[in-house]
Amino acid sequence: MKVECTKENLKKGLFVVSRVVGSGNPLQVLNNILLKTDQGRIKLSSTNLEIGVNTWVGGKIEEDGALTVPAKLINEYINNLPTEKVTLESTENSTLKLESENYHTSIKGLSHEDFPLIPQVSDEPFAKIDAQELKNAFAETIWASAANETQPEISGIFMGFDQDQIRIAATDRYRLAERIAHLLEPARGTKEVILPARTVSEAYKILNISSGEVEIYFSESQVLFKFDETELISRLIDGSYPDYRQIIPKEFKTESTVEREEFIHALKAAALFAPDSNNVNVEIKPDGITVTASSMAAGENTTKVNAKVKGDDNSAIFNFRYLLDCLNNLSEKTIVLKMINDASPAAIVPTGRDNYTYIVMPIKL
Amino acid sequence: MKVECTKENLKKGLFVVSRVVGSGNPLQVLNNILLKTDQGRIKLSSTNLEIGVNTWVGGKIEEDGALTVPAKLINEYINNLPTEKVTLESTENSTLKLESENYHTSIKGLSHEDFPLIPQVSDEPFAKIDAQELKNAFAETIWASAANETQPEISGIFMGFDQDQIRIAATDRYRLAERIAHLLEPARGTKEVILPARTVSEAYKILNISSGEVEIYFSESQVLFKFDETELISRLIDGSYPDYRQIIPKEFKTESTVEREEFIHALKAAALFAPDSNNVNVEIKPDGITVTASSMAAGENTTKVNAKVKGDDNSAIFNFRYLLDCLNNLSEKTIVLKMINDASPAAIVPTGRDNYTYIVMPIKL
């Protein structure tokens, strides 16, 4: 292999593929990225055996070939390089020679034959979605999944395809975030899958630097996201996702519309006085919401938040982190807090948007 | 005590005093800051028994008094507060009531009588220096002192006052940074002291938000820096600082003038190929500097850096971290690297400035 490439192109490609690679894997090739010429471009690939990423960057191909090199080392080397261009050439002993102006470097690599095959997925896209829409949908849900869960289903993110929608959901049993994302055209069927949280979070990071359209492909046990110049392939989680829709209440007794930032400030103030329990009390009366917390050691806080209230007086105790997770990940100026009583699920929805619901259980003392 | 204060003033004052306070000290009062009315202003104080900080902020004093409250809690509370003003009032049981618009809060504190006395230092300034000059001098030296040193003298920073200069020096035996700082007027005598590195680093952080003049006071075992609205008091380190001047070579065999950024890039590239040893080879020939490093595992790198060279060819092995520490903390476009041979101290000086010298020992393999 011999290719010439701009530093910027190479840097961008390395940035995309390097995220899933570790640096301390005892199987050295899993710390490496694969560089390979591919139809006039340079293909970079990485995998951690659960997730694989391929990306393509432009360059001048002088000789076809392939080689793997340590991801961390080539990343740091290219990032530090002050030159505009670099020539990459594989030499004997699986070494990569990098030449650019005054910089002469050899990086020890491993043969491309040692690199795990990243599986191919079906060649027909199952669904197409706008990159921004998918990014927003992930941003509003992924943090709600269960960390370190013994029940693997809810450690992942649910995606249910039906006509021109995906229902994207995440829960840890105590709270649930659901976002309906709109597809660019009807999906090729109905399908329910569970994606590892890590996969969605890697896809989210790629979406941050993508635009245009994303194609989603499936095989029996795998998903492929195809972005601009990048593919992300991941296994799916086996099992069936809990039927969470049944716990979303149909009706509430109290609805209060409140400025999101104001509510956040009040919760953060209360949070300082709930250092051990995380419990804050949220009380709704006709003139607004009152947030309170107190602790023997720290003291106490009461904050009044203006709100437009419809329905009954109400109050319940919440884990402030569960409320803040949702409020911090929305962008609307106002949200609606919906309650039934101190033992039934409450809901947060953004004002003026009906594609997002957040459900949170009160704390029973 | 009852005072009204703007959030911005209080936030700034808390920021300054909170640095030296811990939050996990078993002696609770050492996690607290002291709030005290003082001649029409609010005085905030903190101490870790080695360093004490006092700062004053404006406010409306309605009732004189004093109280201590947990630094972390009041800091986080005030930082989160969206209001412009806040009223602070001490109530029975050493509690601080904070009132501002919709926010009603009580923070449990401790009596001001439990707060350690921050000692008074002499009332005559020993020296006066421009804040910017002192900040720059600290920035170019403090990182060179010995961390976790069994010999306490060199864990600190040396300050030698003589006429209108301070010699500020730090060393860990393998390298030495010396900066001559200019006083605004001759000092009230000659004096040599050693300051704890933590003290200098706290002073540096206060200097970052200070301007104008800094006064330096001494008592037998203590130093006081007086900034705009802030005082920092610290113990001094006992003992006498090594006579480091004798190791600074008077003459060198080779002097090469090189662009600082270019040299940094070359060292960082080499550093990637010296992962275990930190050793890079620096070779000087008439046409420039060549930096090389290699490792069995990673590969090898050679970078040529353009330089104006006077004197003999030369080469030596250095710990790249010791070179980068110095180069990263200078701001000049070019520096001069001076060498004798591969076993004698080398020097780095910034071009066009004679108040700074960095000495570094080569590695003998």
TrEMBL record, chains A, B:
Limits of the DNA polymerase III beta sliding clamp central domain: 129-243
Principal subcellular localisation of the protein: cytoplasm
Thylakoid is among the record's keywords: no
Start and end residues of each DNA polymerase III beta sliding clamp C-terminal domain: 245-363
Coiled coil segments of this chain: none
Record-level GO BP terms: DNA strand elongation involved in DNA replication
A Gene Ontology cellular-component term: DNA polymerase III complex
Source taxon at top rank: Bacteria
Residue ranges of every copy of the DNA polymerase III beta sliding clamp N-terminal domain listed in the record: 1-119
Keywords: Cytoplasm, DNA replication, DNA-binding, DNA-directed DNA polymerase, Nucleotidyltransferase, Transferase
Subcellular localization: Cytoplasm
One annotated GO molecular function: DNA-directed DNA polymerase activity
UniProt-listed InterPro entries: DNA_clamp_sf, DNA_polIII_beta, DNA_polIII_beta_C, DNA_polIII_beta_cen, DNA_polIII_beta_N
Complexes and interactors: Forms a ring-shaped head-to-tail homodimer around DNA.
Similarity remark: Belongs to the beta sliding clamp family.
Physiological role: Confers DNA tethering and processivity to DNA polymerases and other proteins. Acts as a clamp, forming a ring around DNA (a reaction catalyzed by the clamp-loading complex) which diffuses in an ATP-independent manner freely and bidirectionally along dsDNA. Initially characterized for its ability to contact the catalytic subunit of DNA polymerase III (Pol III), a complex, multichain enzyme responsible for most of the replicative synthesis in bacteria; Pol III exhibits 3'-5' exonuclease proofreading activity.
NCBIfam families, per database record: dnan
Protein name: Beta sliding clamp
Gene source species: Candidatus Doudnabacteria bacterium RIFCSPHIGHO2_01_FULL_41_86
